[in-house]
From TrEMBL:
GO terms for molecular function: transforming growth factor beta binding. Keywords: Developmental protein, Glycoprotein, Leucine-rich repeat, Repeat, Secreted, Signal. This is Tsukushi. InterPro entries: Leu-rich_rpt, Leu-rich_rpt_typical-subtyp, LRR_dom_sf, LRR_TM_domain-containing. It comes from Chinchilla lanigera. The gene is TSKU.
Length: 357
């Protein structure tokens, strides 16, 4: 009897940690995840997708971490729609696949813990300034909308220390407005920016952004000339695949990218050889994708301009790896290993490091 009395509080603690005490709104589904000792901490994912516009505003449990309002034919989202108990602690919000054509500048002002926001597959034509200043966002998906002109300063968030990923692909963007000079505002902490399949005819001015990843795939870029990537010395991955039209790569066009490690130029059949000076300044480049371009065969003299290059994809299904030949052993004073490109079908194993012979 004594042992029963001693164990009763412990049993109650275990049971209370696994129970869901708050019901879900009719039509929605609530999935509770428990954490900690004896499941003492819980977070709820609420799925209210595909129910119709009458669903908002919808009451949600106090411990809701993620709310899915996608595919509800919503036409407007303002501050009152995203207010009430449970909203102030939201970390993820999905508003994709609705009928949104605009958003209120204060729509997300009460979501002080929001990290992930999905507004893709809507009809947004404009993005209000300071739309996200109240939230510590790390991921914003605005792909598949009708945006034409976007200001970089619109992505200034509450927490500038958090790296931000922004997806603006598949819009109608013809201009990206740079941060106003002398405005005194901190530069948005955008480290990953996807601008693929828009209407950009020139590389946008992205200087002072802490970018590490940039995709401009599918844009009608006319040329990539000197100064195109000014102020992006920290960029490590650049994709210019499947550009529309006849892209021209000018000599020293990538010279402002000393830290670039991956460059993708694939899917540009009209891209022709313009001399090794095109790749001048890419001292850190390790991977180069030229598959589906006119840059075949690749002259090995390129290795002198790209000292860190490890692999190159060329033609249709051909991959070249850096091959280092040590020569005679022991090495003669003043001698250096001979470097060449060894090419083969992509079905060959390319997982190995550089060959040393």
């Amino acid at each position: 009897m004594l042992w029963t009395l001693l164990l009763l509080p412990l049993l109650l603690l275990v049971v209370s940690g696994t129970q869901t005490t708050q019901p879900c709104f009719p039509g929605c589904q609530c999935e509770v995840e428990t954490f900690g000792l004896f499941d003492s901490f819980s977070l709820t994912r609420v799925d209210c997708s595909g129910l119709g516009p009458h669903i908002v505003p919808v009451p949600i449990p106090l411990d809701t971490a993620h709310l899915d309002l996608s595919s509800n034919r919503l036409e407007r989202v303002n501050e009152s729609v995203l207010a009430g108990p449970g909203y102030t602690t939201l970390a993820g919000l999905d508003l994709s696949r609705n009928l949104l054509t605009s958003i209120s500048p204060t729509a997300f002002s009460r979501l002080r813990y929001l990290e992930s926001l999905d507004l893709s597959h809507n009809g947004l034509a404009a993005l209000p300034a300071e739309s996200f200043t109240s939230s510590p966002l790390s991921d914003v998906n605005l792909s598949h909308n009708r945006l034409q002109e976007v200001s970089v300063s619109a992505f200034t968030t509450h927490s500038q220390a958090r790296a931000l990923h922004v997806d603006l692909s598949h819009n109608l963007i013809h201009r990206l407005v740079p941060q106003p000079a002398g405005a005194g505002l901190p530069a948005p902490a955008i480290q990953s920016l996807n601008l693929a399949w828009n209407r950009l005819r020139a590389v946008p001015d992205l200087r002072d952004l802490p970018l590490r990843y940039l995709s401009l795939d599918g844009n009608p870029l006319a040329t990539v000339g000197r100064g195109a990537f000014k102020g992006l010395a920290g960029l490590t991955h650049l994709s210019l695949a499947s550009l529309q039209g006849v892209p021209q790569l000018a000599p020293h066009g990538f010279s402002e990218l000393p830290g670039l490690q991956v460059l993708d130029l694939s899917g540009n059949p009209k891209l022709k050889w313009a001399g090794t000076e095109v790749f001048s300044g890419l001292g850190s480049l390790q991977e180069l994708d030229l598959s589906g371009t006119g840059l075949v065969p690749l002259p090995e003299v390129l290795l002198h301009h790209l000292p860190a290059l490890q692999s190159v994809s060329v033609g249709q299904g051909t991959r070249c790896r850096r091959l280092v030949r040590e020569g005679a052993y022991p090495r003669q004073p003043g001698s250096s290993p001979r470097v060449a490109l060894h090419c083969g079908d992509t079905q060959e194993s390319v997982a190995r490091g550089p060959d040393i012979l």
